[in-house]
Amino acid sequence: MNLPPKTLALMLALAASAASAAGTPSGTKISNVATASFTDPNTNAPISDPVQSNLVQTSVLPKPDFDTVYSDGTDGTTATTPSAPDYDIKNVLPGANVDTSYILVNLGNVNNQPITIAPNTTGTVTPVPAGSVEYYLGSVSPANLITGSIPVPVDDPLTPTDEGRVTIIQRIKVPTGAAAGSQYSVSPQASGDQWNGSAVVPAQEPAGDLQYTRASVTSPSVTVVPPIDTVPGTPAPEPTTPGTTPGDPDPANPVPVYPDPTTPGTTISVDPTTGSQKAYPKGDLDTTSDVVKFISAVKNNGSLPDTVALIPPTGLPTGVTVQILDGSGNPITKDANGNYPLGPIPVGGSAAYQVVVTYPDPDGVGNSGSPVPVVIGVDSSNDADLLPNSSATFTTFPAQQVFGDTVNPGGTADAGQVPSQGVVPGASTGTGNSATDSSATFPMTVQNTGGYAEAYTLTGSVDVKLVNGTTVPVPVKYYLDANNDGVPDSATPLTGGLTLSVPSGGSVHVIAVVDIPANAASTTANGGSAPLIVKQTSVGTYSGNTRSDNNDQIVVGIVGNGLSITKSTPPAARPGDDLPYTLVATNNYNAALKNFVLTEKGGVTQGATTTNLFTYSTFKTVTGTASFVGKVLYRFNNAAWQTSAVPGLVPSTINQVDVGVDTNNDNTIDSNDAVPSGGVLTVNFTTTVK
């Protein structure tokens, strides 16, 4: 049966519908059009255009679901079941705040599903006073206090990133009068709409799906003092105050600081009242574990000489180890209880000790930039119990950042790649994401995933090849985009050395803009596919921590008014006179023209006129010159190309003359020969009037 293409199109009745997975966003239109290409049986040739079916669409309905989990993705504990180490907080002082991180997960397909959070204290050993639990979005600050529902975005199945996650912080405010031994257990409990298999109904996380934080209270009695140099063998100097540190909460009143004795670039601050210390190590270029050495001491304020026991920390983060040394850096032998004896210490005297913390380098794959707290308890031998009478916290704040393309409206960044940006050199310059102007734009994000606030310096450049064959570096300009809407906040770029201050756990958003010069060469001409690479770097101004993003690309389009050919000859001549012609061919594109041949022949129609050059005149001479590197070749009557301008034919038989430039020196003209942008081929051609 011989069916024409239109008849076959009517036979393509496609039912394009699909069952919606939970991750496909609600309201999504799933569209489908089928096409067919084939050989037309009427003509025995391929059809010129594929045959299309009708368009069919399927709408995805809402199927909400949610969950709250620990930051490592686990849940399902009770108030008395030991939590993960990071959530079973020991040696908490009365009046302290206990902050732990959780993840709200959108398991359904409703974008920005509103979820509410409330504390569940069922089973807590010590009653939790009303109003002593707060929740914050992302990080603890007054602006982030959660007072209503939290919109949780849907996870887009078309991206490798899991967008359906929101970080919240639970803060337990321990009462100032809390007794030693008190235990407060609290879990966030989420509520929101949920699909029950037949309808969308209000729901709450069940009791067996909770995730508790437990805070255990202790009480201090002996004194931990700052580093001192009055104890024999103590290598640390007195704390000094040369200036503020990255995590100093009050720059107007800088705290005492001292350098790490083994890594002087690490600044350690000291709380003169509690003896607790904070270390701010700088970034390094390797991924091996990092080390911080704290220097401290215990003072005997009692009336009898005393030997104290330094109690090692428990519940350390994965990969963290701690050594406790004496003041001279020598190991201390553990006692029968697994503690480290220090002393005897005379009345009013002090004994120094060192705390050496080794932790995974935050530059390593999968390693955290979160603070590393180490609590060392101190127990006096002059009492009957084995409980700590005092303690100090030695916290390391690693430096870490993520710098890359903004991958969602939530403001995260990764090492992913945005689609290549197209530009048109010589067009107007703008900051919009458009292939119709000469600027390429890339939304970028710097995330401070380290433990302290830091400023970052951003720089970038693109090596742009010009039409003259040279390459120039073009700097990247940065525009602040504080609200992360993809639009610069100001038409004025940030200049003078871009530095952006970012709090720990925070992000800052910018638009990277590259203005391509008007004389930039095309990257797509003649089948080319080598886009320009945008190289960007973010450097922590204190830590030196460096991250690069080198995978964004720019495609430079083809511009220009094409090839221009001008021709001149005398307006009149007689038989026997020579007719000199001058032809000037210019490449006005921003790309090379391959396999270019300039031809003189009769019978060429232009408008209502057909040329008759070789009907009424006879070939005499031809010469060509090029403004670019190459060898001019000649061809007569489609014979072989030759370097000589003298034909091997009888002049009266010549009816076609071709001129080209051999740029690869293979004595022929083909697709490997190219007239560069701006290149000019001039041909002087003479015939004699018959």
Description:
This protein is mostly beta strands and 690 residues long. Helices cover 1% and strands 42% of the residues. The longest helix has 6 residues, at 5-10. The radius of gyration is 38 Å and the shape is elongated. The model is unreliable at 1-22 and 229-237 (pLDDT under 50).
Short description:
It is built from two helices and 49 strands. It has 690 residues and is mainly β. The protein has five domains: 5-59, no CATH class; 66-217, Immunoglobulin-like, CATH 2.60.40; 223-234 and 273-396, Immunoglobulin-like (Sandwich), CATH 2.60.40; 410-556, Immunoglobulins (Immunoglobulin-like), CATH 2.60.40.10; 563-689, Immunoglobulin-like (Sandwich), CATH 2.60.40.
